[in-house]
Here is the input.
Amino acid sequence: MRKFKTLFLLLSILILFSCEADDKGHEFITIVNKSNIRIKVQMVRSSKITHADTLWVCGIAPLTIDTYEKRIFEAGRHRKRKTWENEFRDIPFIQFLIFDAAVYDSLIDYDVPCSQIDYTIPVKHYYQLKLEDLERMNWEVVYPPIED
Here is the structure.
């Protein structure tokens, strides 16, 4: 009986240590539109603070999110492990620019190259989020922002 207990304990320890960790990172950031208007969301990755902090960036297509719907933004720069944790090794923060979809669509002209555009599109709200912010928010960004 003593050999059985020892063998059982040894096997239990081996099984316990052979399991992979559950936390492999986060592949998605979810943007939730809790407003009564359709919005467009432009994600801007930046290694430093630029004019893109509050301005629309030509050449980066925004995603449309209908009222009371959500969309996901997938990590994708690192081929081996596509996680946002890996993305944040290269960037200090990520930005999400929120636009009123109707205003955006009325102003944008897809036939004009970025080099010839001399207008801006008003940003309703912008989020500048660090890794810690997204972890605290459980990887879900809500528009309009929830006041604490």
Q: What stands out?
A: Residues 25 and 106 are 39 Å apart (CA to CA). The chain has one domain: 21-143. The mean pLDDT is 83.
